[in-house]
Every structure is written in structure tokens, then in C-alpha cells.
Write a structure and sequence with these properties.
It contains twelve helices and no strands. The chain is mainly alpha-helical.
Length: 358
């Protein structure tokens, strides 16, 4: 019996030992399976990330905005071939949809559109300066504009003379040809700078010219205002007088915010308005004075007649119907305001803003 018990106990010990060994083996093998699965998952995620298409949306929108600005500036008219070349390259990229990164190419095209816009604005401003004969007002700036615009035109012509034509861009591989638009320009940064420098130089001519005109017209407006003050227009036509003065004040605001042309127009309008007001008030005052003089002449004639009547047929001291006593108050006392108090004060000088690069 003891042998049987010992044998049973030994069997149980072996059974438990076997179970524990199996559990340890299972625990050791399970983590290995999980690690392999995680590695496979990470590898799949990295591969999916690499294949994700690149979003060129912001660059496309920015380039489109520059394209529209170039059109508004007149690039289609002033630089038709150069604009067509750049625009065709841009259309090629828009229609590509290959999911690749084209942000760098779009940035180059945007710079080309910006340069064409500035060069077109420079040409338009140059035409106005030439038409109005403004160059002598700032000859150095005008000469600098001429030089910069000539540099830009030369670079644009050189770029168009290479093999990149609109037809070739349309027929060649789009992703390649779009990147090479304007590749004939040796220095793209210099290309854009030449256009901007040309516009800023011409703008300086325009700004300085109208600043000069505004200063001269403001002096005229103040002179006409003084003429209106002299005939007491501030009393006779108070509302119109204020409107004229407000034009000078409005012009001063534009002058101080770097809008000399707007200021010039307001000063010119104020000068003409004050002149017309002063002339009209003076004419009507002259008419009134004439009527007063005529009335005085009649009063004098009546007085002389009365004196003659008093000599020939004196009335005596008895009151007469229709004739007031000597000390009778016929009108209430009138308190006249000082006309000078109604004059709107305006400074003789005005501060101007600096020439801004546009």
C-alpha cells in the first residue's frame, strides 16, 4: 500500500512539472508572434505613407492669384508671348495630377507671373509719364526706370529665343516642359528685380510730380480762400464756404497719406470753388451797395425837400399823425457778430507722406 501511494505521488509531481514547462514555453513563444506582426504593420504603414500623393493646392492657388494679377496689369498686351509661355506651363502643371511634389516648379512660375505684372505696370506708368511730360520733375528716377525696364525686356527676349516655345510645351512631356519655362533666363532673381525696380522708379516720378502739383494748387486754394474771407463769404454763404474749406482739409488728409494726385484734385476743386464763391458774393455785394447808394440819394432828396417845406410851411411842435416822436425806438438793438470769428482756420503748410514702393 505504501508503494502504491508513493508511486501516485511521484506521478502527480511529474504531471505538474510537465504542465509548468508547457506554460513557460507558451509564454516565451507568444511575444515573438506579436513582435513579427507589429513589424509587418509598421512596414506597411511606412509604405502607405511613402505612396501618399503630395498636395500642391496652396502653391496652385498662389500661382493662380499671381496669374490674375498679371492679366489685370496688362501682361497679355504688353508681353503677350512671355505670358503665353508662362501660362501654358502653368496649365500643364494644373492638369498633371500625378501626385508628385511640384511646389518648387509652381514657385518659379509664380515669380514669372509677378515679374510680368510689375513690368506691365511699369510700362503703363511710363506711357502716362511720357504723355503728361512728367519726366523733368524727377529725371534721375525716370532714367533709372528706363534702364531697369530695358534690362527686363532684354532678359525676356532672351528667354523667348531658346527652344522653349508654346507649341513645344504643349507637345512635350508636361512634367518636364513645365519646369523649364523661362529656363533661358540666366538669373531669375535679377529678372524679377529688374521689373520691380522699373515700376518703383517710374512710380517715384509720378509721385514727386503730383506732390509738386499739389503744393502749387494748395497755395492757389488758400489764396482764393483769403479772397472769399475778404468779401465776408463766411457770413454771406456760410454752408458753401464750409464745403470749400472741407475740400482743402480732405486734400490735406490725402496728401499726408501718400496720395498726392488725390490731394491735387481736391485742392484744385477747392481753388475753383472759393474763386467762384468770392466772385459771386462780391458781385451781389456790389449790387446791394448800388441799391444802398440809390436809396441814400433818395433819402437825401427827401430830406432836402422836407427842410424846404419846414421853411415854407413849418409844422410847429404839435404831434402829427403818422410821424413818430424823436425818441421812439423803431427796431430792437442788433448785436452784430465779428465776421473774422467765422473764418475757418487752415494751416499754411501740410505734412506729406514719403514715396512708397508699390
Amino acid at each position: 500500500m505504501k508503494k502504491v501511494s508513493l508511486l501516485f505521488c511521484a506521478s502527480l509531481v511529474l504531471l505538474f512539472a510537465s504542465c509548468k514547462s508547457t506554460q513557460q514555453v507558451a509564454e516565451e513563444e507568444t511575444p515573438k508572434v506579436e513582435t513579427v506582426a507589429e513589424e509587418e504593420k509598421d512596414s506597411a504603414g511606412e509604405q502607405a505613407q511613402e505612396e501618399k500623393p503630395v498636395d500642391n493646392g496652396n502653391s496652385l492657388e498662389s500661382c493662380e492669384a499671381s496669374r490674375k494679377a498679371a492679366i489685370e496689369a496688362g501682361a497679355k498686351e504688353y508681353y503677350a508671348d512671355a505670358f503665353a509661355l508662362t501660362d501654358t506651363a502653368f496649365e500643364a502643371l494644373k492638369n498633371l495630377n500625378d501626385g508628385k511634389d511640384h511646389n518648387a516648379e509652381l514657385a518659379k512660375l509664380k515669380a514669372c507671373f509677378d515679374a510680368l505684372a510689375n513690368a506691365s505696370k511699369a510700362r503703363k506708368l511710363k506711357e502716362r509719364i511720357d504723355a503728361e511730360g512728367l519726366a523733368p520733375n524727377a529725371q534721375a528716377d525716370y532714367d533709372a526706370g528706363e534702364k531697369s525696364l530695358a534690362e527686363f525686356d532684354a532678359m525676356a527676349k532672351a528667354a523667348l529665343s531658346v527652344e522653349n516655345t508654346v507649341e513645344e510645351i504643349k507637345s512635350a512631356a508636361l512634367s518636364v516642359r513645365s519646369e523649364s519655362a523661362f529656363s533661358g533666363i540666366a538669373d531669375p532673381a535679377k529678372f524679377g528685380k529688374a521689373a520691380l525696380d522699373a515700376y518703383n522708379s517710374y512710380y517715384a516720378v509720378y509721385f514727386k510730380s503730383y506732390k509738386k502739383f499739389a503744393n502749387e494748387e494748395r497755395k492757389n486754394a488758400l489764396a482764393q480762400k483769403k479772397a472769399a474771407d475778404a468779401v465776408k463769404a463766411q457770413i454771406a454763404r456760410k454752408a458753401e464756404y464750409k464745403e470749400c474749406a472741407d475740400l482743402i482739409i480732405k486734400g490735406d488728409q490725402k496728401y499726408s497719406t501718400s496720395n498726392p494726385e488725390g490731394a491735387y484734385k481736391d485742392y484744385k476743386a477747392a481753388s475753383a470753388s472759393f474763386e467762384a464763391l468770392a466772385n459771386d458774393v462780391a458781385a451781389k455785394r456790389a449790387q446791394a451797395q448800388k441799391a444802398i447808394d440809390e436809396a441814400k440819394a433818395k433819402v437825401k432828396a427827401s430830406s432836402e425837400y422836407a427842410e424846404k417845406a419846414d421853411v415854407e410851411k413849418p409844422l410847429g411842435d404839435e404831434p402829427v399823425a403818422g410821424i413818430e416822436a424823436e425818441d421812439t425806438v423803431l427796431l430792437e438793438k442788433d448785436e452784430f457778430a465779428n465776421p473774422d470769428d467765422q473764418i475757418i482756420k487752415i494751416d499754411e503748410s501740410v505734412q506729406s507722406g514719403a514715396v512708397e514702393e508699390r
